[in-house]
Design goal:
homodimer, 417 residues, alpha/beta, seven-stranded parallel beta sheet, four-stranded parallel beta sheet, 14 helices, 16 strands, 21% strand, oxidoreductase (chains A, B), glutamate-5-semialdehyde dehydrogenase activity (chains A, B), Gamma-glutamyl phosphate reductase (chains A, B), GPR_dom (chains A, B)
């Protein structure tokens, strides 16, 4: 079955690669319209998924991520219309010129071909990914979580109707609809058909993909993010940034998980932090030094367990570690970070420069919240994932990251000397 | 042992990342000088490798690739000096601006970190790769073929002397010196330390890396390249290009392996091809249609075996296949090509455009030899490999492909709304 899906996707990708931006936008508009027009079928499938999920005892948080409503579906359709408005990178000439040999050479941006995406229980991802792939002329093979497979099947059915109404093959957007987990392992070996694989999920899925996939994989989306409060920083603004980075949306990958505090700042800063975190409802996981300054205050403080330094809380919890200096802060981030987003809060120019140069993360910030690491915030218009590896794309992945380039050489019966 | 190599490389990479272009060029110059000054030690190690290789019955061609001489060593040192002259991409700002949120954001080009390279019996690759990695501030872990391990050890020893003379850690350039093959498998799992892996070798090595590596891999360097002779093409210039693409250096990956001839051109073109190929000493592997036009001529013609369509000859052999039209040619290339380099020879504008758009290869040519696919020819100054995959880098990989970028966000106590 997967072989057929792969062949259909590859065939469709050749057709998509030749489409103009206008033709691609036409499909996207049709897709948005049909998502609204077919809302009842999609919502019905979603209700069946929800009923099953309740029966399986999924948490309320999971049920909420899985649930669609007419309003949510409308918002999803509007996001597709938003993608229409983005600039299409395909066809752009990156660079080029006339070589001494007489060959006119240029690098031209082209679609990747077929993109594979493995994700969990969020039906909006199905539409997001499909629209970004279509906009860049890629075919896509989607593998959503088993909790949403009825919803995804209904959505993909609607997308395929839109494709066919525009004279394009249904193979351009396909879902692996069986909940059978063995199919994921099979998908990871489809290097003949899939050009890039994006797993969007937890550490286990990423490990599986890294170890088993024969397709180039982009991993990311796991953020053990740090904020380092330097000696020179003002307390008020520091607290303001920390509250934003921790509480604005605690379940996201760009939320801060560990605060590193300069030893010389600890006495002045930590009591104020305790006060503020008590107000913000954040539990502090403090190392023994930090506990000294925090234990008498109003904050909920627990003793730091080493393991929490290496995992995302995704909740209103924050590690607090006192470090001797900038070197210790950088060493800590190298050891425990996931190369996602890390920030320094400082008034010292040279400390800022050193931190930016030496912290090896996708995004490094000075006096700003880690919450900015996001395709929308970065002005990319949308994001297909957040990469924490270094090849191909790093950080929020916009439309450009769904393309590659080809070298086009035009000669006049030109040979190599 | 590999764990120690990995840790030393990672530590060195942090130091290299902060070097100025001038400091990096100073190491490269020192390296070039010492390669010449220490020639006798390197040549002695090379003689020991050669003696062992003769004893093991290696072919003359292999012995030649393995052998160093004072002149070859001088040329290798001069190549290092050439790398000094290239523009350092590290530190360049790719794009950036002031976001609505007040965050000043830029994408800054930075080294990858640690690059791993697995290659075969060519000691010049050791120096090439080390110099390109140092130029871009990367540490490198080299794993050469077992036939050259003494030579590589001597070369790496000299490079490490140069590093230390400039106050830099020897961990910046390391070789896995034991010929034990099990170490390759171990190297493929070092994702904690190695950021990018480049296998330079045959299809078997690439398959091993794709299947076993947990590190992002760049595969390439295998070229089943095609030339399609369109109906409208002039015979003389076509033969000229084909001779260049086949015979200029038959052992390279950008050499043409299969000629696709438009059916309507066969009668006029194939007899002339036979004549020319007889003169050039090329054996033709002809399909049954082509045989009709070739068998009465002077060329050495054998019946095409299907398997030869999917493999590199790397010799003076050429498949000849008659195709019904452009569609058949493109389908053939999609089925049998390795997405390396493919060319059309035509006088028809629209045929040229269609071929360029629809052939999904790293390099596509119109009226030019496939032999141009090369970092030097493309003006990149040097190449670390030729990628035939689509992620990160495609085609000849110059200095830029040894870098990634980081997002740098400078705020003024800026939070996400």
């Amino acid at each position: 079955m997967l072989e057929q899906i792969g062949m259909a996707a590859k065939a469709a990708s050749y057709q998509l690669a030749g489409l103009s931006s206008r033709a691609k936008n036409r499909v996207l508009e049709k897709m948005a319209d049909r998502l609204e027009a077919c809302a009842s079928a999609i919502l019905k499938a979603n209700e069946a998924d929800l009923a099953q999920a309740r029966q399986d005892g999924l948490s309320e948080a999971m049920l909420d991520r899985l649930a669609l409503s007419p309003a949510r579906l409308k918002a999803i359709a509007d996001d597709v219309r938003q993608v229409c408005r983005l600039t299409d990178p395909v066809g752009q000439v990156i660079d080029g010129g006339l070589l001494d040999s007489g060959l006119r050479l240029e690098r031209r941006r082209v679609p990747l071909g077929v993109v594979g995406v493995i994700y969990e229980a969020r039906p909006n991802v199905t539409v997001d990914v499909a629209s970004l792939c279509l906009k860049t002329g890629n075919a896509v093979i989607l593998r959503g979580g088993k909790e949403t497979y009825r919803t995804n099947a209904a959505i993909v059915n609607v997308i395929q109707q839109a494709l066919q109404a525009c004279g394009l093959p249904a193979g351009a957007v396909q879902a692996i609809e069986s909940p059978d987990r063995a199919l994921v392992n099979e998908m990871l070996k489809m290097d003949r058909f899939i050009d890039m694989l994006i797993p969007r999920g937890g550490a286990g899925l990423h490990k599986l993909c890294r170890e088993q996939s024969t397709i180039p994989v982009i991993t990311g989306g796991i953020g053990v993010c740090h904020i380092f409060v330097d000696e020179s920083m003002d307390i008020g603004p520091a607290l303001n940034i920390i509250v934003n980075a921790k509480t604005q949306r605690p379940g996201t990958c760009n939320t801060v998980e560990t605060l590193l505090v300069h030893e010389k700042k600890a006495a002045a800063f930590l009591p104020a932090l305790g006060q503020q975190m008590a107000e913000s409802g954040v539990t502090l996981h403090a190392d023994s030094t930090a506990q000294k300054w925090l234990s008498t205050g109003p904050a909920k403080v627990v003793a730091l367990q080493p393991q929490t330094l290496d995992d995302e809380f995704l909740s209103l919890d924050l590690n607090v570690v006192v470090v001797a200096d900038m070197d210790a802060a950088i060493t800590h981030i190298r050891e425990h970070g996931t190369r996602h987003s890390d920030a320094i809060l400082t008034r010292d120019m040279r400390s800022a420069q050193r931190f930016v140069n030496e912290v090896d993360s996708s995004a490094v910030y000075v006096n700003a919240s880690t919450r900015f690491t996001d395709g929308g915030q970065f002005g990319l218009g949308a994001e297909v994932a957040v990469s924490t590896q270094k090849l191909h794309a790093r950080g929020p992945m916009g439309l450009e990251s769904l393309t590659t380039y080809k070298w086009v050489g035009i000669g006049d019966d030109t040979i190599r000397a």
